[in-house]
Amino acid sequence: MPLGGDMPDGARLIAVLGGLPERAGAPAVGVESLILPFQSVGDNVLLGTESSGGFFLRKATLDRRAAELLARVGLSLAPSSAAIDLDPVERRAVELARALARSPEHVLIDDRQSRFTVDEHRRWLEVLAHAARTTRVFVAVDSLPDLHFGVRAFDLVAVVRNGDLVDWAEPDGAAQLAKSLVGNAASAERPVRVLGPIVLELQNVTVCDPVHRERVRVENASLTVRAGEIIGLGGAQDLALGIFGASTGGAVTGTMFVDGNPVDLSTVERAIAARVLFISEHPPTYDVGIIGGVPTSVSGTSLARLARLGIIDRRREYVPRRAPSMLLEVIPGAPSRPSTSDMNEVLAGWAAQPPRVAILTEPFSGLSPTEVTERRTLIEGLADVGIAVLLEAADAMQLIDLSDRILLQAGTRISTELRGGNVSALGLAAYRLRTYPQSEN
Predict the structure, then answer these.
(1) Continuous segment of H or E residues that includes residue 81
(2) What top-level branch of life does the organism fall under (predicted)?
């Protein structure tokens, strides 16, 4: 379906739920930085389009063109500025200016895993508003609260399903899009579980970036999990890994209790000793470039260690990957993620010798329907023997019909909780479409 269609001509800045629309030739800007840190800002803006005006252009001409593109996103940076000194908002703005250099009809922005602070979100929305004056901009988000209540700055809210833009409405009427967002998804009957006492309690837990310790990834999160309860965490990977021995690599503060007793879960070894266990087929990793001639992908704790040793450049932005690095995939014999059967064996072992807390991230990503059913049965088996279970997934829809409660992260905060009848596809859609402020934990 064309991106334009019957959409009003005056709609320039459009918030999109359900994923990015498919459009051949439309440049896309993602969360992962594609800035060349040791080049100038101007070189980054013109990357890939340097010769579009002919060869042997004078530097003054190139700088003037780069400055014009930077002005289109509201930046007054000199093209000669060093890209390594840009802050996170400026980096993304430079990438957007690069996309505009191709004179596209549309630009696609993927903000679904953004971890901007509230102030950075405001600045980023200003950048998008500048760009939308000359080019239609589609911004994919997990929910409208992810925009930190800047949805009023958008002209439309649109829904994408299977790559097609299927429905849209003005922000004031966004609630009517719930059925379009859900589609034909049918909710299964959720099991009624008998819950035991509180097993895990978090009080004001904050998780920081592994390299830039001043940047917060999760802020003041508090929750309780009972024996036999399954809690879904939507887009809260950093919180899950922070609980498991600070596996993000960043500093973790706050208080944690297991069975009512304060515990030190600051390392993986201490977490395991406290019977708090973690597993994932898609553990987050960071690409740090070439070490010894081999493409290298490392864990959060390893990234933090490399930063402390001065082996990596702390000025660069490192974004965690949920999928294996494509660089490592092509190397014969390189370590890979555990297979589906390996993970299932581990889960079966946990049910036989129960830990107190089981943490799983991306439990169903990439599985066939048969494999999803098998995995669900194993996870329900963990709850049946009294384990407190935390499931985390980027797409909270994966957690529907299995979780007793779902907590959703927006920006750096756990912004809302779905429980009871709202733990459904329609309940999640209603949350994603809310345009008024949420109470924060």
Answers:
(1) none
(2) Bacteria
Q: Quick one: 76 and 106 in the same domain?
A: yes
Q: Is 198 left (phi over 0), alpha (psi -120 to 50) or beta?
A: beta
> Which has the higher per-residue pLDDT, 258 or 416?
258
CA-closest candidate to residue 191, choices 379, 398, 3: 379
Q: Which two tokens stand for residue 174?
A: 């966004």
Paired tokens of 253: 């503060």
Q: Which domain holds residue 347?
A: 198-284+336-423
Same domain, 76 and 116: yes
Residues 6+ apart with CB under 8 A from 313: 37, 84
> Is residue 145 situated within a structural domain?
yes
Q: Is residue 230 domain-shared with residue 96, that is, in the same domain?
A: no
- Residue 150 has a pLDDT of 66
Residues 245, 269 contacting (CB under 8 angstroms)? yes
DSSP state of 188: P
Residues 215 and 144 in one domain: no
Q: Would 306 be classed as within a structural domain?
A: no
CA 247 to chain centre: 17
Q: What is the pLDDT of residues 345-366, one digit of tens each?
A: 999 999 999 999 999 998 988 8
pLDDT band at 215 (very low <50, low <70, confident <90, very high): confident
Cα atoms in the Cβ-side hemisphere of radius 13 Å centred on 325? 20
CATH code of the domain containing 397: 3.40.50.300
Q: Provide the residue type at 409 as one letter.
A: Q
Is residue 187 assigned to a domain?
no
pLDDT in tens, 43-73: 999 987 765 555 455 778 888 999 999 999 9
Given a cut of 70, whether residue 3 has pLDDT beyond it is no
